[in-house]
């Protein structure tokens, strides 16, 4: 559910109905030939000293921020809220969008739009998901050897966006 309808499913349902009937496919098969992109929502959560909260996944060798892939008909912000709840057991009211970043295909993973939202300040978070072996709070420089370079760039932009109040657009972590 979109952020503008958070907590108001009736308003969301009304907006869907207002769009009218589903758009028909005028050229059979055209929709199935379109590229499929993925998107993910993540939360920039800091502790009271300003360190960033990273999760320690069991399924990959690098740290990540809380969040994950959006499911069908799920907005990136809703995905981030859901993933933070699943991963950390926290119900957060995410703040503003900080960064939209496009990442290219990487091995089996399709190209993706990455959305980073302000997750606020949380001290003492713990992992609550079997896909995680823990959490760690680190400075961005301290995290650099343990995260992908593109994530380091994206989070550097997210911190700058938080400080300036201006959302950033990036491609592979580089503002454009």
Automatic annotation (TrEMBL):
Keywords: Hydrolase, Magnesium. Its cofactor is Mg(2+). Pfam families: NUDIX. It comes from the Bacteria. Residues 35-161 form the Nudix hydrolase domain. Residues 1-35 are annotated as: Disordered. One of its GO terms (molecular function) is hydrolase activity. Signal peptide: none annotated. SUPFAM superfamilies: Nudix. This is NUDIX domain-containing protein. It comes from Lentzea xinjiangensis.
């Amino acid at each position: 559910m979109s952020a503008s309808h958070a907590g108001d499913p009736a308003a969301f349902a009304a907006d869907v109905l207002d769009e009218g009937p589903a758009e028909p496919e005028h050229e059979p098969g055209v929709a199935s030939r379109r590229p499929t992109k993925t998107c993910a929502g993540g939360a920039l959560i800091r502790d009271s000293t300003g360190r960033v909260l990273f999760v320690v996944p069991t399924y990959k060798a690098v740290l990540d921020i809380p969040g994950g892939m959006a499911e069908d008909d799920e907005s990136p912000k809703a995905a981030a809220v859901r993933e933070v709840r699943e991963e950390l057991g926290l119900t957060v009211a995410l703040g503003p969008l900080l960064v939209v970043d496009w990442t290219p295909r990487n091995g089996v993973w399709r190209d993706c739009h990455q959305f980073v939202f302000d997750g606020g300040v949380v001290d003492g978070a713990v992992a609550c998901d079997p896909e995680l072996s823990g959490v760690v709070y680190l400075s961005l420089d301290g995290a650099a050897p343990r995260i992908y370079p593109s994530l380091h760039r994206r989070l550097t932009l997210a911190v700058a966006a938080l400080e300036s109040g201006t959302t950033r657009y990036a491609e592979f972590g580089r503002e454009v």
